[in-house]
Amino acid sequence: MAAFFESKELVKKFGGLTAVNRFDLKIEEGEIVSLIGPNGAGKTTIFNLVTGFYSPDEGAIYFRGHDLVGMSPHQITGLGIARTFQTVRLFLNMTVLENVMVGQHTRGSSGVFGAIFRPPSYRAEEARIRERAEAQLGFFGTRLTGYRHDQPAFMLSYANRRRLEIARAMATEAKLLLLDEPTAGMNPRETQEMTELIGRLRDERGFTILFIEHDMRVVKGVSDRVVVIDYGRQIAEGTYAEVSQDEHVLEAYLGRKTKDAA
């Protein structure tokens, strides 16, 4: 039986620099896995490799038995992987509801003809897309429902823009969500709410989640497993308690050897 997600010996170079160096990762369905490491360790590069924005120089990536190497981002989304970004990327002049409907259009089938001539089949599909988008927004409660459906995205608070980006990823009917620093720029209350939200995405909606995070309270609070990289190479893997005591992790973050390792 094929693994839910697996990368093998990934290598990515930019010029003479190696950004990702023989990186292996296996994720089981239903897991919440955090990917951590110092700034510049290669975390977002790994996300870009998985989602088809970059092609690896070496190695393989598999998702539910499909080889992702060589696929376009659109094809990978169609297989069931969706992501958010370090910097929120929304259509700011579109409404909250329209932003999520865009995510649903990856599953649409009407094409250009339907958009121009709007036959009954197109209108029926648009109604289904709207209904599903509303259902995804409903997961976020009053933060993104009611009158907010018709608000332009630029009117949302920063935290709600983060939530909207996740809602749009959910709308693609993904199975694996890649969240790139979901709590970046949030205050402590918003960070706690996002930590709880990540857990609910798995427990209530069944998503498998891989996320990048710098706030160790979030990592500790929600991760089943933590993977640590430094200079593009995996240096530790395990529970939060295990990796937080790992001498290689402490050296990478603190820049010095531990007493036991000295």
What would you note in describing this structure?
The protein has helices at residues 43-50, 73-79, 96-104, 111-117, 120-138, 158-171, 188-203, 216-222, 240-244, 247-254; strands spanning 5-14, 17-27, 32-36, 58-63, 66-67, 81-83, 176-180, 208-212, 225-230, 233-238. By secondary structure, it is α/β, with parallel strands linked by helices. The protein has 2 domains: 1-80 and 174-262, 3-Layer(aba) Sandwich (Rossmann fold); 95-169, no CATH class. Strand 4 (58-63) and strand 5 form a beta hairpin. Helix 3 (96-104) packs across helix 5 (120-138) and helix 3 runs parallel beside helix 6 (158-171).
Number of domains: 2
Q: Please state the oligomeric state of the protein chains shown.
A: single chain
CATH topology of the largest domain: Rossmann fold
| Structural classification | alpha/beta
**In angstroms, what separates the terminal alpha carbons?**
44 Å
Helicity range:
25-40%
Q: Say which CATH homologous superfamily of the largest domain is assigned.
A: P-loop containing nucleotide triphosphate hydrolases
Question: What is the name of the CATH architecture of the largest domain?
Answer: 3-Layer(aba) Sandwich
Q: Give the C-level CATH assignment of the largest domain.
A: Alpha Beta
H-E string:
EEEHEEHEHHHHEHEHEEHH
Q: What is the overall number of helices? A: 10
Strands, total number: 10
